[in-house]
Design brief:
The complex is a heterotrimer of chains A (262), B (373) and C (74).
Chain A: E1 10-14, H1 33-47, E2 53-57, H2 65-68, E3 72-75, H3 81-91, E4 96-102, H4 103-109, H5 111-119, E5 125-130, H6 160-163, H7 169-174, E6 179-186, H8 190-208, E7 213-219, H9 223-226, H10 230-244, E8 248-251
Helix pairs in contact in A: 1-8, 4-5
Chain B: E1 3-7, H1 8-18, E2 23-26, H2 33-45, E3 49-52, H3 56-68, E4 73-77, H4 79-84, H5 86-95, E5 99-105, H6 121-125, E6 136-138, H7 143-160, E7 163-169, H8 170-174, E8 176-180, E9 205-206, H9 213-233, E10 237-240, E11 247-250, H10 253-268, E12 273-278, E13 280-282, H11 286-293, E14 298-303, H12 309-317, E15 323-327, H13 336-351, E16 358-360, E17 369-371
Parallel strand pairs in B: 2-3, 2-4, 4-5, 5-7, 6-7, 11-12, 11-14, 14-15
Antiparallel strand pairs in B: 1-8, 6-13, 10-12, 16-17
Helix pairs in contact in B: 1-2, 1-7, 3-5, 10-13
Chain C: E1 3-7, E2 27-29, E3 42-44, H1 56-60, E4 66-71
Antiparallel strand pairs in C: 1-4, 2-3
Classes of the chains: A alpha/beta (262), B alpha/beta (373), C mainly beta (74).
Chain lengths: 262, 373, 74
């Protein structure tokens, strides 16, 4: 499907990515999962690797991500996407393999699988969508839920004394030797979204260069389960999540010196 | 090729290499660890994939990934580790990817011990994981069969896009016997459905999700039709001295080996005993068992568990003849004399056309006790 | 005309995240009508042709529903 230019002199400068299917997403209005999908698809388009990319979907709201990417896809068990991606990548070392996981999947039930994928320096790219809540099951507390944040399983607000404090996975994984690239970005405004896209590109380039495990954590909104309008949800990321999950580069490989042999 | 002295665990691992297994993922657990160690050396020297996973949960999901990518792949473990793999096995059944699992069973439940047992029969044959699914379950009784059935397991897995299980007990894994390895097979091409990157083709999806109930049922009916085809085509069993038998033992794996020794002794005494040894535990040799039940006075099921396969035998025999059970649990191996005693008691019960009853042992030196059914 | 945008209304969920990011305030929610999803879609309201095709709205859109056009330099 191509959108026709209104005038012959106008040329499309931004259009629907080829690496997205034309299946409308199941995400709620204003949910930034859609932005994460779009950015990944744009990067795959720009790198020209759609036919050489294999995605691994997880369980949670991202369970249907396989429907939306126009690449080969696997659908993994809850938390096991890094293990499944390990098998896919070892069987296809010349392909780009990425997982797309939420915080319940990656930081809770899949904590062991993500940690050891990083420990092995598994040459995969992980897109970690952190919205501080279990979205698909209706808004329960996640390991990344903020202190005091009300969820359906922490109705009085998350109490650190009994449920712990938010788990910062990027900080945890960045100190693993096998991790080559670990950064945290946010999807709460246009500037941050642009930065997130650059990080997604870099994370896939790291894999293409065979440098090891790469992960981009994306702070993301869940308007429905946070009980906020879409714009207020973006403000919640900026005002409440970013202070707990600081944005930045936690681990970045050295840039090859200009003119140095590859 | 020539006969060499091989340990069961090494034999099946090398057989997998020669069957063209390109990726092995595993986690150490006794009594199968020699297989993982063999693969740790062999796979890299052949340029193939070996990964020691962080857990059996991860190992089976790595197998799932490599299988989804269309590689011949496998894992091996022992009972507690296999329990952890149930999630992955259900997903693999739900997405129809082929792979091989070797379960070298040990005593349980729980951590149990590292001695040989057959108490994963129900877990493997009846599913273990969630959902209506089957795995092809092959039960070797010699080191040679550890090899031959491993090759068969890969072929059947690929042919039916199913998980094949080599269900061996700890003694099969640890035993050394003369056996002959096959020549190295060429590596297989990746199948058209595999995840290899959508280059010049439509995208492929490997998934077990069917959110629409009607669609999920259609998929289930497809699976059941496939299972029916396997039941029709892939039954394997051994008949031993059954032509004139009045009493027959039904046993698999090591229990069947010990039963053969007991039967040899009884034959020398003039007792007409024989053995039906299922080689495929699923699909089960139902027709052969039904036919046997019509010819003998009684059946004795011998297992190294508290009575698992006997449930299938009774279901299939439908009360035509008395079915007795003799089992040892917890990693204790039955001795030929114990089995011979149980066969004698079964033969006399069969001659008297008594009601089906169990025979259970309290200890190695305790006489077999009759327990009302 | 420097640029313009087109909203694919079949994709629009009416989240309105595109509205505040437009530097010229040219996008609005069409409150007087519904799209096939039953939501009020976003639409461009640019009678004075002020849109520059800056892409901000497309970047903010979770549905990749906005196509951006810019005038080619002659």
């Amino acid at each position: 499907m191509t959108i026709q230019a209104p005038e012959p002199l106008l040329t499309p400068v931004y259009q629907y990515p080829e690496s997205l299917t034309h299946v409308p997403t199941h995400y709620c209005p204003g949910c930034t999962h859609g932005i994460a999908h779009r950015l990944i698809a744009e990067v795959i388009d720009e790198m020209g690797v759609r036919q050489d990319t294999i995605g691994v979907a997880s369980v949670g709201c991202s369970v249907f991500s396989y429907r939306y990417f126009a690449t080969d896809f696997a659908q993994a068990a809850h938390g096991r996407a890094p293990a499944m991606a390990t098998g896919v990548k070892r069987a296809n070392p010349d392909k780009l393999v990425f997982t797309y996981q939420g915080d319940g999947d990656l930081a809770s039930i899949g904590a062991a699988e993500i940690l050891h994928a990083a420990v092995r320096g598994e040459n995969i790219t992980v897109f970690f969508v952190n919205n501080a809540i279990y979205g698909m099951t209706g808004g329960q507390m996640a390991p990344t839920t903020l202190e005091g944040q009300k969820t359906t399983s922490s109705p009085a607000g998350r109490d650190a004394a009994t449920t712990g404090a938010p788990l910062r996975m990027s900080e945890l994984l960045a100190q693993v030797d096998g991790a080559a690239y670990v950064v945290r970005r946010s999807l709460h405004d246009v500037v941050q979204i642009r930065r997130a896209k650059k990080a997604i590109r870099r994370a896939l380039e790291v894999q293409r260069q065979g440098l090891g495990f790469a992960m981009v954590e994306l702070l993301s909104s869940c308007p429905t389960n946070w009980g906020l309008a879409p714009d207020a949800a973006l403000a919640f990321i900026r005002d409440e999540m970013v202070p707990v999950f600081p944005l930045g580069d936690l681990k970045v490989p050295d840039e090859p010196a200009a003119g140095a042999p590859a | 090729m020539s006969v060499e002295l091989l340990k069961g665990n090494v034999a099946f691992a090398e057989a997998a290499v020669r069957a063209g297994c390109e990726a092995y993922f595993g986690y150490p657990i006794t009594p199968q660890t020699e297989a993982l160690e063999h693969m740790a050396k062999r796979m890299p020297e052949l340029g193939r994939v070996f990964v020691q996973a962080e857990s059996e949960v991860a190992a089976i999901n790595m197998v799932y990934g490599a299988a989804a990518a269309g590689m011949r792949t496998m894992t091996s473990s022992s009972s507690p580790g296999v329990s952890l793999m149930m999630e992955g096995l259900s997903y693999m059944a739900g997405s129809e990817v082929p792979a091989v699992l070797v379960d070298v069973m040990r005593g349980g439940p729980g951590l149990g011990n590292i001695a040989p047992a057959q108490s994963d029969y129900l877990q493997m044959v009846k599913g273990g994981g969630h959902g209506d699914y089957k795995m092809i379950v092959l039960a070797p009784a010699t080191v040679q069969e550890m090899i031959d059935l491993t090759l068969l397991a890969f072929d059947l897995a690929d042919r039916y896009r199913i998980v094949s299980v080599l269900l061996a007990d700890g003694s099969m894994g640890q035993m050394m016997e003369g056996a002959e390895l096959p020549p190295m097979k060429p590596l297989a091409e990746r199948p058209a459905w595999a995840l290899t990157g959508a280059r010049d083709r439509d995208t492929n999806l490997v998934s077990s999700i069917h959110l629409d109930p009607e669609e999920e049922e259609t998929f289930n009916l497809h699976l059941q039709a496939k299972y029916a085809e396997i039941e029709a085509n892939e039954v394997r069993f051994e008949e031993h001295l059954l032509d004139d038998a009045r009493v027959a033992v039904v046993a698999f794996g090591t229990a069947a080996r010990v039963a053969k020794t007991a039967i040899a002794g009884l034959r020398a005494e003039g007792v007409a005993a024989g053995l039906l040894r299922p080689i495929t535990l699923w699909p089960y040799p139902e027709a052969a068992l039904r036919d046997l039940a019509a010819r003998v006075d009684a059946l004795l099921v011998v297992e190294m568990n508290a009575g698992q396969m006997v449930e299938d035998v009774r279901r299939i025999v439908e009360g035509r003849v008395p079915v007795r059970f003799y089992g040892r649990t917890g990693g204790v191996m039955p001795m030929p004399e114990e089995i011979a005693d149980a066969i004698r008691e079964t033969a006399s019960a069969g001659a008297a056309s008594g009601a089906p009853a169990d025979t259970a042992a309290g200890g190695s030196d305790a006489p077999a006790q009759e327990v009302p059914a | 005309m420097k640029g313009t945008v087109k909203v694919d209304e079949s994709l629009c969920k009416g989240c309105a995240l595109c509205i505040p990011v437009c530097p010229k305030g040219l996008l609005r929610v069409a409150n007087e009508r519904f799209n096939a999803r039953g939501v009020h879609p976003a639409e461009l309201d640019d009678p004075a042709e002020l849109c520059t095709g800056c892409e901000m709205c497309a970047i903010a859109c979770p549905e990749a529903a906005i196509t951006v056009f810019r005038a080619v330099k002659a």
